[in-house]
Structure formats: structure tokens, C-alpha cells
Automatic annotation (TrEMBL):
Name under which the protein is recorded: dCTP pyrophosphatase 1
Stored PANTHER family: DCTP PYROPHOSPHATASE 1 (PTHR14552:SF21), PTHR14552
Signal sequence range: 1-20
Ranges where the record places region Disordered: 197-220
Gene3D superfamilies found in the cross-reference section: MazG-like
Length: 326
């Protein structure tokens, strides 16, 4: 299967903006390979830094030793980090109380509007304070991705493979000839795809069996790097004319929803026992899909907000490594 044609971003199902989103500037097609950040390089840094918070205090910090308490803790951490993103997308940050129509009032409103522009609209000539806020916003998004790697590690799930499996499934759930320009749910196409709420959802037997560590049958650069995966997701969304729904606020809300679905899988599981002994293969598969959904939305969100997620991740990990060395 040609993954370049199988990758799909779940469309925003219930969000209907009143205006059409502006197409983002494309990433450079000839991005040097030295600037592409692989999933493996991030995983290796995380493993070196023992980011499984509880298990790093044990002699054996392999994912197989992680407990249900570890897993639920990391999901709480993910929820907390994602929650801290919300103020970045509040409309009240960008709209102000009405005043009279005087010239002074108009000037003041313009100045205030510029001062609180959303981070994805900041211009290179922005003030130092604004640039600092942009960097902080980028790092917040990077922290979400970092935590997704940590949650995956606790579950002994390869994040890159989970994303590829989920997008392969979504490619079958959303045939391009049926869903172009539409934001309907996949069940709208069940008659044609055979995929329903109870049938055809598992990725356990997915044809995607390889991890992020390379396969001669795959376009390695497109499927093992953050930048390559981002471009695949963008191209597929554009092919289906879904970019009109992909405003930052829409995608951020969709991301929040997927974190909730991940939490729902383990809300009644309790904290006792090892993950690999307590959680069934089917539930781990569902967890991998939810982690992948959050990751796909995050990659798309960073794309439309002009965030170089790969570079941000390496900055965060290098900074953490420096603190540990110190």
C-alpha cells in the first residue's frame, strides 16, 4: 500500500467555522534531511532520560515494569499539559470591550489588538515580548508531544507505528471520493466501507507492522520523521478539502476531545497491577489509536500554527538533558 495515499486526518466532525480558514504556507518540499527529526531520535532521548516518572526510580525501568498507577498518572499529566494550552486559543484574548467611536478609542483598540494577537499570527517584526510568548507557546505544544511519547512508552507502544496504523484505518474509513469537502462522521460511509462503530475498528491485524526504525518498503523520510508525517497529513487533508475546517481553535478542541477518549479507556481500571498484565491486547490497541488521534491533531495544529515541532522537541529534550548533566 502506498502510504502517501493512505494517510488521513480525522476531519473536525462537529465544528463548523463561519469563515473559511486561510491556507497555511507550505513547508519547504526540499527540507534538508539534517533538519528532519525522526521519531526514533526523540524516543532514544526520552529513554536515555528515563521519562517514565515512577519506573525511573526502579532498578529496571523497562516499560514492562510500568504499573496501572504509572499509566493513569501519565494520562493525568497529559490532560494537565493539554489543559494549559487552552488559554492560547481563547477568543477573549483577541476581542475587547466596545467603546465609543472616537479616534483615540480606535487607536487604543488597534494597539491592544496587536498586543494580544494569537501566537500563530505574530510577525517577525513583533516586539521582544511577543516573540517570547510565541516561543513559550511553541514549547507548550512540544510538551504535549513529549508527553504522548511518555504515555506510549508506559504502554509499550511505538508511537510512530500507532500513528501509521491509525491513519491506514482512517484511510479506509474516509474514502476520498465520498468525503471530499465534507465533515461528516465515518459512519456516513459505512455502507460503502463496511466499517461501523463495532466492526472493522481494530488495528491489531493492520498491514502496518513496522516500527519507526525503518523499512525498505516504506518512504522512510515520509513515515519516520515529524516533518514527513506532517506533510503527509497536510496533503491528505487538502486532497479531501478539509483545510476549510482546520482553524487552530477547531483543531485544538478536537485534540481536547481525543485526550478525553484516551482517559475514558482507563477511568475504572484502578491503579493495581502491571500494565502488560492487566490491560488486554484489545484495550492496548484502542489506547494506541487514541494516542495516535491526539498526535495527528497535534501535528496538524502545529502545521497550521507554523510551529516547527521537530525542532521544538529537540530543544526541549536538550534543555532537559543539560539540567540532568548539571
Amino acid at each position: 500500500m502506498n502510504l502517501a495515499h493512505a494517510v488521513v486526518l480525522i476531519p473536525a466532525l462537529i465544528y463548523h467555522p463561519t469563515t473559511t480558514a486561510t491556507m497555511v504556507n507550505p513547508l519547504p518540499q526540499d527540507l534538508p534531511s539534517s533538519r528532519r527529526i525522526s521519531f526514533t531520535s526523540i524516543e532514544n532521548k526520552i529513554n536515555d532520560q528515563c521519562c517514565c516518572r515512577r519506573s525511573r526510580h526502579r532498578n529496571d525501568d523497562a516499560p514492562s515494569t510500568c504499573t496501572m498507577s504509572d499509566l493513569r498518572d501519565e494520562i493525568f499529566h497529559l490532560g494537565a499539559i493539554v489543559g494549559r494550552l487552552c488559554p492560547l486559543f481563547l477568543n477573549e484574548r483577541h476581542h475587547h470591550s466596545q467603546c465609543d467611536n472616537s479616534v483615540d478609542c480606535a487607536v487604543e483598540k488597534e494597539q491592544r489588538s496587536v498586543a494580544v494577537r494569537p501566537f500563530w499570527e505574530e510577525h517577525p517584526s513583533s516586539s521582544d515580548n511577543a516573540k517570547t510568548e510565541v516561543v513559550a507557546a511553541h514549547h507548550q505544544l512540544g510538551q504535549v508531544f513529549l508527553q504522548l511519547f511518555v504515555v506510549s512508552r508506559v504502554c509499550a507502544i511505538d508511537l510512530c507505528t500507532s500513528i501509521l496504523k491509525k491513519v491506514e484505518l482512517n484511510g479506509r474509513k474516509y474514502p476520498v471520493e465520498l468525503c471530499k469537502g465534507k465533515s461528516g462522521k465515518y459512519t456516513n460511509y459505512s455502507e460503502h466501507t463496511g466499517i461501523t462503530t463495532t466492526e472493522g475498528q481494530s488495528t491489531i491485524d493492520s498491514p502496518i507492522k513496522t516500527s519507526s526504525h525503518g523499512d525498505n518498503n516504506l518512504d522512510e523520510d515520509s513515515t519516520t520523521t515529524i516533518e514527513g508525517m506532517t506533510m503527509l497529513i497536510r496533503n491528505f487533508a487538502n486532497e479531501r478539502q478539509w483545510h476549510r475546517y482546520h482553524t487552530p481553535r477547531n483543531i485544538a478542541l478536537a485534540l481536547l476531545g481525543e485526550v478525553g477518549e484516551l482517559a475514558e479507556l482507563f477511568q475504572w481500571s484502578g491503579d493495581e497491577g502491571l500494565v502488560q498484565e492487566v490491560v488486554s491486547e484489545e484495550t492496548l490497541d484502542k489506547a494506541g489509536q487514541e494516542i495516535a488521534d491526539v498526535s495527528i491533531y497535534l501535528l496538524r495544529l502545529c502545521d497550521v500554527c507554523h510551529v516547527p515541532l521537530g525542532e521544538v522537541m529537540m530543544e526541549l529534550l536538550d534543555a532537559t538533558e543539560g539540567r540532568h548533566d548539571g
